[in-house]
């Protein structure tokens, strides 16, 4: 029987493999959510570097957020990472939800990133 962590790693690897095939050289918007915060970064896998990043722990967002673990904070992080990515010259990305379902905080972050100017 596989553990929860092994199953999560398998889902993540399966999704990353599919993304690599379909990316077409576009950077990926990777999402990580913990119990208390949410993090997002735009990663260029070809060069192996992060182009833009944001989290609910950023100094710009922290005073305005009640908690880092709700949909409102995920939306704020999505808008901020989109703003920073557009400033870095990135407008098209591939969305990497990791092993998480496209639901709740992950969905809120994705929709806010789309509103902020990223297309995926």
Automatic annotation (TrEMBL):
Assembly with partners or alone: Part of the 50S ribosomal subunit; part of the 5S rRNA/L5/L18/L25 subcomplex. Contacts the 5S and 23S rRNAs.
GO cellular component annotations of the record: cytosolic large ribosomal subunit
Name of this protein: Large ribosomal subunit protein uL18
Function summary: This is one of the proteins that bind and probably mediate the attachment of the 5S RNA into the large ribosomal subunit, where it forms part of the central protuberance.
GO terms (BP aspect): translation
GO MF terms held by the record: 5S rRNA binding; structural constituent of ribosome
Superkingdom: Bacteria
Gene3D superfamilies attached to this UniProt entry: 3.30.420.100
PANTHER family: 39S RIBOSOMAL PROTEIN L18, MITOCHONDRIAL (PTHR12899), LARGE RIBOSOMAL SUBUNIT PROTEIN UL18M (PTHR12899:SF3)
Similarity field: Belongs to the universal ribosomal protein uL18 family.
InterPro entries: Ribosomal_L18, Ribosomal_uL18_bac-type, Ribosomal_uL18_bac/plant/anim
Keywords, ordered alphabetically: Ribonucleoprotein, Ribosomal protein, RNA-binding, rRNA-binding
SUPFAM superfamilies listed in its UniProt record: Translational machinery components
